[in-house]
């Protein structure tokens, strides 16, 4: 901020409505699909979607990416997208771009009722131009990618006229155990830092902080968890124990109703995360309308900030659907 701008801000006077309008313009909120819709998210936030594998974490990213890159309106029809750009960094190396195209096709067809038209192809091309994909196979490639993201985003902004709005990383802990088991080696000369687990995460967080200070972006990452038994598993085991008088089953179940997982990421990463959503599978299978198949149900719960209710959802071809 220039000196003149600072003096203008100090000497200026504005109403509450003007202040709220200025803040909302500089830090716009994101209207994201379920189950991310429960919390108002803004640029600068770092959202962690944690859960065991499989628990539909990547599907939530694909659903969110589709909602962001779709246009708000096209030829008078409202498609409900945000018209934002998405940068997807794939560390699991299992991303299926055809799944994203399929979901976009379902969303477009639901609006105009036609599956094969020139407008559909144009909307699909317009949406996919807003989607950038990067694949990393180890921590060194991840660090190199983060170092060049600012230049990449500036170049895309010049060519497409759209800056980066949403950064996705799937999954942030993909190289955790490899880095933890590997021997620390110097990155270049003798005075360079060693490639250790702690140093890698420190550089990742530092580079992401710099990126957020230069670009108005929302960051959403997934993370696989190491979990304990669920309440349903305890119930099944309890049925196998006829002589269960040695413990209080109700207290055991009550203690395991709350989601449990072991945190393995370093504290520097934990303090960097501003929001955390826990997702996990359930034993329920839901029969959806106009479908002859039962869909596996998943459960999501906001841990940061903590909300005292759960969302249950299923994943279908058209995306994620909440179960009332």
Describe the structure.
The protein is of the alpha/beta class and 324 residues long. The chain has a single domain, classed as P-loop containing nucleotide triphosphate hydrolases (Rossmann fold, 3-Layer(aba) Sandwich), CATH 3.40.50. The chain is 41% helix and 24% strand. The protein contains eleven helices and 15 strands. The strands form four sheets. A nine-stranded mixed β-sheet has the order 7-6-8-9-3-12-13-14-15, with helices on both faces. Helix 6 packs parallel to helix 8. It is globular and about 55 Å long. The termini are far apart. About 9% of the residues have low confidence.
Helix and strand topology:
Layout: H1 3-11, H2 16-26, E1 29-30, E2 41-42, E3 46-51, H3 57-69, E4 73-74, E5 77-78, E6 85-90, H4 97-112, H5 118-129, E7 131-135, H6 139-160, E8 164-170, H7 176-181, H8 197-214, E9 218-224, E10 226-227, H9 231-240, H10 249-257, E11 261-262, H11 267-272, E12 275-287, E13 294-304, E14 311-316, E15 319-323
Parallel strand pairs: 3-9, 3-12, 6-7, 6-8, 8-9
Antiparallel strand pairs: 1-2, 4-5, 10-11, 12-13, 13-14, 14-15
Helix pairs in contact: 3-4, 4-5, 6-8, 9-10
CATH topology: Rossmann fold
Tally the structural domains: 1
Number of strands: 15
Distance between the termini: 48 Å
Helix content: 40-55%
Assign the structural class, choosing from mainly alpha, mainly beta, alpha/beta, alpha+beta, or little secondary structure.
Answer: alpha/beta
What is the mean predicted local confidence, pLDDT?
Answer: 79
Estimated radius of gyration = 23 Å
Low-confidence spans: pLDDT under 50, at least 5 residues? Answer: 229-257
Q: Could you name the CATH homologous superfamily? A: P-loop containing nucleotide triphosphate hydrolases
The strand order across the widest sheet is 7-6-8-9-3-12-13-14-15
């Amino acid at each position: 901020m220039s000196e003149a701008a600072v003096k203008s801000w100090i000497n200026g006077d504005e109403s509450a409505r003007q202040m709220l309008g200025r803040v909302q313009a500089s830090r716009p909120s994101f209207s994201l699909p379920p189950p991310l819709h429960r919390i108002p998210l803004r640029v600068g936030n770092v959202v962690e979607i944690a859960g065991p594998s499989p628990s539909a974490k990547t599907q939530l990213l694909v659903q969110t990416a589709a909602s962001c890159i779709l246009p708000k309106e096209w030829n008078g029809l409202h498609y409900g997208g945000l018209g934002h750009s998405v940068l997807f960094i794939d560390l699991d190396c299992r991303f299926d771009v055809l799944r994203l195209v399929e979901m976009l096709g379902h969303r477009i067809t639901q609006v105009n009722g036609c599956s094969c038209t020139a407008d559909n192809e144009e909307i699909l091309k317009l949406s996919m131009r807003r989607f950038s994909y990067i694949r990393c196979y180890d921590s060194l490639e991840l660090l190199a990618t983060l170092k060049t993201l600012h230049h990449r985003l500036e170049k895309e902004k010049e060519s497409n006229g759209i800056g980066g709005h949403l950064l996705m990383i799937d999954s942030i802990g993909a190289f955790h155990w490899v880095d933890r088991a590997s021997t620390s080696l110097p990155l270049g000369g003798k005075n360079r830092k060693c490639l250790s687990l702690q140093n890698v995460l420190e550089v990742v967080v530092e580079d992401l902080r710099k990126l957020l200070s230069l670009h108005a972006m929302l960051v959403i990452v997934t993370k696989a968890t190491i979990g304990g038994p669920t309440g349903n598993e305890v119930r099944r085991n309890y049925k196998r124990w006829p002589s269960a008088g040695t413990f209080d089953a109700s207290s055991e179940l009550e203690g395991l109703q709350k989601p449990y997982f072991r945190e393995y990421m370093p504290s520097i990463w934990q303090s960097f995360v501003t929001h955390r959503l826990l997702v996990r599978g359930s034993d329920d299978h839901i029969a959806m309308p106009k479908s002859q198949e039962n869909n596996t149900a998943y459960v999501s719960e906001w841990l940061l900030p903590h909300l005292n209710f759960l969302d249950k959802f299923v994943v279908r071809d058209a995306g994620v659907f909440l179960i009332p």
